[in-house]
Design goal:
This is Alpha/beta-hydrolase family protein. Pfam families: Abhydrolase_9, Abhydrolase_9_N. By secondary structure, this protein is an alpha/beta fold. It has 21 helices and nine strands.
Length: 583
């Protein structure tokens, strides 16, 4: 974080920092130029450069600019500390580049530079801190969020300083290791070669520690912890007494092998009487088939087992068949499936499989290949069985996925034509920005349509909506045959997060903002990326209709995709109340 070591120490020999961090206008430990020299062993950790300090303050202030979601003081402090550390490194790097173009060595700061910093920095930080509190208030108002902790908000600058210092010391520790290696290598090779080899060794060591020890170790611990949780059962969930559910009487999948989320999926859901209360007509009991990680050893075998249990229960004799790719832990959003079953009048079957123990936000980072395999293998197994049926007896085949589940579901298809030919309808909610088809449809959208609600090829098959109750553009164009619908909130960080945010301004921030995104949000290099990254773990901690929380929107979305007969606007309003109450 503190930049690279320069070619020599300060010429006064008083133990000043390396040239790359000495910058134009440097004093050790924040002191003034010309002051008494202090022992080098103290300066190695305590000194600060003027360019780096200004960089830290400027980026730290910019971290208070609004992001997609409201955040508390603890999170704001962490983001401020991270961005300040990045700013410090950028300030040091900028000073180093400037000296290279000016062809001069580092020199002490002018006498007025540090006093100006100690006066200007607190004022600048205080102004941005005040604006930050106002922006957070506006975001909470947009989303109807009432939780707010004044003590944590006041503590956020102190948290930021702590995080900044830890990151800065970590960077300097890495640089210290490099210096020792470089000095050691100089005994056998030239100085330039020693420096180059030293950086290669330190970079490789840091990479191995982060990936092999920290990342892999943390993932392994999380996997072990969540595998234990997978053996539990949610309160209120009971083993099915019907043969129409996996884990019930006659099922090919044992109840104990379904996992936590699988038991929640097959052990709950609307009953025939619940559905009759909505449709006012006799309703069948929906079929639900599922295979957990403990049900079979591979993704392909779990898909085959789930489809076999679906056949056993009579799922292919139902009018509507839904293939769902789960999120990381095997979770199926109850709102999505319940809405589908209500609108199908109970004449439906749903099948899903588990591919990971990890929750979605961790699987989002480490289990993408597993999600892709699960979506492809499950749909292929269902589709193969579906093709064997006489054409007149085939159910309408639908596909759904939320978040990482949409990424997995997309893997089964090559594009718009494939979705139109092999499905009767598709609903994807909160698609991650790296989804292949989602990016293809969005990037190739019709001219003039915004990224938050693109129009692809006049909406003939694929459409996007931020709120299906208020419209699915283009309203004036036909939407015949198979309907593919992407449901995404303007404030959903899962949809908009991308490494490209580091250096590139996205269209969704340069165009007119979405209804629940603060108009004052703007793109800033590095800063916006870290802010949206910080929004990811808390994307569902907001009211329904915002962030990554999709609940009652499924009612209007499935109504648009399925086009059920005899469903009125009053029926949809009533069903939304039912889904909201169940959520």
């Amino acid at each position: 974080m503190s930049g690279t070591r320069g070619p020599q120490e300060h010429p006064n020999g008083a133990g000043a920092p390396a040239a790359s961090e000495a910058g134009a206008g440097l004093t050790a430990g924040g002191g003034t130029p010309g002051g008494p020299a202090q022992p080098a062993r103290h300066r190695k950790l305590l000194y600060a450069t003027l360019p780096g300090s200004w960089g830290a303050v400027v980026l730290g202030c910019l971290s208070f600019t609004p992001s997609l979601l409201p955040r508390g003081g603890l999170l704001q402090g962490m983001i401020c500390g991270i961005t300040a550390a990045i700013g410090y490194g950028l300030g040091v790097l900028a000073a180093c580049v400037w000296r290279a173009f000016a062809d001069r060595e580092p020199r002490p700061a002018r006498r007025w530079s540090w006093p100006a910093f100690f006066i200007g920095a607190p004022i600048l930080f205080g102004v941005f801190f005040g604006f930050g509190q106002y922006w957070q208030y506006e975001i909470r108002r947009l989303m109807g969020v009432t939780d707010y902790s004044v003590p944590l908000a006041v503590a956020s600058p102190f948290i930021a300083v702590l995080v900044f210092c830890l990151l800065l010391l970590t960077g300097r520790g890495v640089r210290g290791i490099y210096r020792r290696l470089s000095d050691l290598l100089k005994r056998w090779v030239g100085a330039r070669a020693a420096r180059a080899v030293g950086w290669i060794l330190v970079t490789g060591l840091a990479y191995l520690i982060v990936t092999s020890l920290l990342l892999d170790g943390c993932v392994a611990l999380a996997n072990q912890a969540f595998s234990v949780r997978n053996t539990t059962t949610q309160e209120g969930v009971h083993q099915p007494t019907t043969s129409l559910r996996s884990g019930g009487p006659g099922s090919l999948v044992p109840w104990g092998s379904l996992g936590l989320q699988g038991r929640g999926f097959t052990g709950t859901g609307p009953s025939p009487s619940d559905i009759t209360g909505f449709t006012h007509r006799p309703a069948a009991e929906p079929i639900r088939a599922y295979a957990g990680l403990a049900s079979s050893g591979s993704t392909e075998s779990r898909a085959s087992l789930a489809v076999a249990d679906l056949k056993r229960a009579g799922g292919f004799q139902r009018k509507n068949l839904l293939v769902v790719t789960t999120t990381g832990s095997g979770w199926v959003d109850p709102a999505a499936v319940d809405s589908f079953e209500y609108l199908a009048g109970g004449d439906s079957a749903t099948v899903a499989i588990q591919y990971s123990y990890l929750p979605s936000w961790i699987s989002y980072l480490v289990d993408q290949s597993k999600a892709r395999a699960a979506g492809r293998d499950l749909f292929d197994a269902v589709y193969d069985a579906w093709l064997q049926l006489p054409q007149s007896r085939r159910p309408r085949l639908f596909v759904a996925g939320e978040s990482l589940g949409s990424f997995g579901s997309e893997a089964a298809f090559s594009g718009e034509a494939d979705l139109r030919i092999r499905t009767a309808g598709t609903l994807f909610a909160g698609p991650p920005n790296f989804n292949t088809l989602f990016r293809q449809f969005s990037d190739q959208r019709d001219p003039g349509s915004p990224e938050i609600q693109p129009v692809y090829r006049d909406g003939r098959t694929v459409r996007f909506t931020t709120n299906p109750a208020t419209g699915i553009p283009p309203a004036d164009r036909p939407w015949d045959g198979t309907r593919v619908l992407y449901l995404m909130h303007p404030s959903d960080p899962i949809v908009w997060w991308s490494p490209r945010l580091i250096f590139n301004a996205p269209d969704w921030l340069t165009e007119q903002h979405g209804k629940d995104v603060l108009k004052g949000m703007l793109w800033l290099p590095f800063v916006t990326f870290w802010q949206v990254t910080a929004d990811l773990p808390f994307s569902t901690g907001v009211p329904d209709g915002h962030g990554h929380k999709y609940t009652t929107e499924y009612v209007d979305a499935w109504n648009a995709v399925m086009r059920p007969a005899h469903v009125t606007a009053q029926d949809l309003a009533h069903l939304k109340e039912v889904i909201a109450a169940e959520g």
